[in-house]
Amino acid sequence: MENTIKNLELRQQQITEDFNPPKFILKYYYDELMEKIGMDIPEIDISYSQYIFEYVSAGGHSSQRTIIDFNGETVEVTAAYIAEKIKYNKSAKRQRSLMTNKLRMFIKERDAYTCQMCSASTDDHPLILLEIDHIIPISKGGLSEKENLQTLCWKCNRKKADKIL
């Protein structure tokens, strides 16, 4: 909004300079001139929210108060912070950190301890090593969500690697 207002003011100034009316008209009849040429820029008031954070101790003896004006600068900083958080949440590091033992066990139980490619299971092969695989690999934008995870034996997981089948 602030940039829009500045752009309107600059455009008005540029039109006035290009038109180049005599100085006395600009000094004494500026408003009438702008009205005649159709340059009516309304007064725009930008009102920003103000956030007040206040802490009062349990006993009421100590307190702190912080006031943040949500203006153009704080909006930009907040937008950059949110963009960084979104970028981190989709990062490989974040996705790998979501692969908890609990999630791994859930996926294996859901898939009945059976490889989803070759159908080898712990019932048939008690010593088989089962791994959790991302159907759409993290390197290709896949997320560590239940719908994107499957159980594979170690051989099938190595064959699949980072491919999308």
Automatic annotation (TrEMBL):
- CDD domains in the record: HNHc
GO molecular function, a single term: endonuclease activity
InterPro entries, per database record: HNH (IPR002711), HNH_nuc (IPR003615), NA-targeting_endonuclease (IPR052892)
Task: Name all HNH nuclease domain ranges.
Answer: 102-158
SMART domains for the chain: HNHc
Q: Whose protein is this, by species?
A: Phocicoccus pinnipedialis
Q: What is this protein called?
A: HNH nuclease domain-containing protein
